[in-house]
Batch of 2 targets.
Target 1
Amino acid sequence: MLQAINSEGKTCLIALRSKAEITKLKDTESFYCPICYEPVLIRAGAKQVAHFAHKRDSRCFSSMTGEGPYHQQGKLDLFQWLTNQGYQAKLETYFKDIKQRADLSFSINQKQYVIEFQCANISPDILIKRTLGFQSIKVNPLWILGGNQITRFSGQGLRLNMMAQACLNQYPDDHSAWLTYYCPVAKQFAHYSAIALIGDHKSYGHLTFLELRNSSLLELLGKSKPPFIPSEWLYLKRSFRTSPRSPRLSKSEKAFHKWLYQHSLHPSLLSSWVGLPVQGQWKMRVPIWHWQTILCYGFLNGQQTFYYPQLKQFIAPYVKTIPQQPLVFQDIDPIKCYLNYFLKVKQIVKITKDFYRVLYPIQTYQTLPIALKKDQYLLKKLDL
Ligand SMILES: [Zn+2]
């Protein structure tokens, strides 16, 4: 931890003291953990941020978090970053009621926020529990992941594990999802916005790098929607169509391939209607390609008309029942968002409230080049 209290109860942020001061403090002062009040030791090496540590046999929960130098440096950077912007930020705030300590806390317009700088991969359940804990006392948590957690698989594509997915935030105006990483070595944020999950872990979004000293909190929390890049999306669609089948498929991927086989379908020749970006994909259990294929060929092609509740019931097995993103509002309907694309170009028309007519069946294509051309054409037609 970065802070401890001295025998007079005053807080000391040791990392901001000079080397000479730290040496003097070591000899003259005693420090205590602000949570358990056990005596703590000053640790100040050449390669790490000066900090306090509990004695080895301590049973204080804050001694068990195992914060490494990367985490401590990041926490300190973010603290100074907030302070420089005029926020009354506090480090390592302990919330007694919920027995949780946040890395940073501050207020905006009487709304209280905490920042958790998460560098280690922890179970999504623990993260969700911590989020709900803060929310239960009306504190808004913002998770900033360590830059060491970024895994890119293409220019604008990141692999998001379940922990990262549990950290998704949502812009209030356009409901798109975002996530922020901070790297204390590079001193920059990687801000990832307009995120669309396309697989269990694969996602596509807009990744921008912002220098710490040139960026503000409001910029991160800001509302501007970044542009959708059709060429990037087409690249992902192309790799869905052309990638050889992996020998190590997950259970749900196996089920999908079996389904395709039983319906005499091949990914390379599926309609361009399969694989369109939708808001709220995080609510779905399976990748975009998977549920959209089943919805197109398993439902729409068998109906001339349908009621929306029928469609919802059909797709229900592919929708998560328990929300795993506590920071996103739950009022987005990815199925409706998908249906709206069909309405937009009159492939399907609305007859009365919740009652629809399918005007054209969903096709398959003869060859891969035709499919790729159609993918491009449909994105244009939908104005994406
Ligand atoms: Zn303690």
Target 2
Amino acid sequence: MSDQIQRFMFDHTNVRGEIVTLAAAYHEVLDRHAYPPAVNELLGELLAAVALLTDTVKLDGTLSIEVRGRGVLSLLMAESNPGGELRAIARIAEDAALPSEHASFRELVGEGQIVITLDPREGHRYQGIVALDQETLGGCLEAYFSQSEQLPTRLWLAADEKRAGGLLLQRLPEESQNQDVDAWDRSVQLADTIKTEELLGLEQREVLHRLYHEETVRVFEPKALRFGCTCSRERMSYALHSLGKEELRDILHEQGAIDTQCHFCHTKYHYTAADIETLLDDPDAPPPTIH
Ligand SMILES: [Zn+2]
């Protein structure tokens, strides 16, 4: 089963959807870290969610979802870029007891908020914030859609440390194109019957057939997804530059060189004392490139 997202539409209605399945990209994220199982599962759901949101809002740019909690997990973040690449990271609060295997979303994140940032290649950056006040990640993201996009949207997310999957349904505003007034309620009720093992184990077309074999579903060309990181020496240099001359010279004094590592992909970046001096001498340090 390949990592991909597929868009679909119910004919003669204003209901559309997306289905995503991730295996290799999900493994690439988990292989780089040693998070507890409950965190791995939530990270899988977040990866599926970021892919669904990016395609749903048809963004040509970078989209990130940051879950900023005050529970065991202080941060959970997933990001997509225009190349169909995804990356994600979790941060466990210092001194926190490791969560049990079956810890719920609420137990992991506690109170807090979700920050969704859309950074298009052209145009302005947009940020939406929703409270962490629902029982599931999907529930919180549904609240985001009703607040920010004002489009009724439902999400089903699942992950089991091997695969991550998600299904999204959305009712578009064009009521005039809708020849079937029950289409939205019916499609949501049918989606509610999906089992985790089906969402994670079946091919996307089989899931759609299992749920909607009595409907006329138009499926679009699937889009491939993969793991990818946007870190670079240029961006790392910018981050170092922002620490300031004194801080950098202090670290050099103690360590002789500066070694940093990307939190997402673990690529190492090494800076000698001479590299740092060049960086400090350059008043036009490179700006952070988003893409
Ligand atoms: Zn990286």
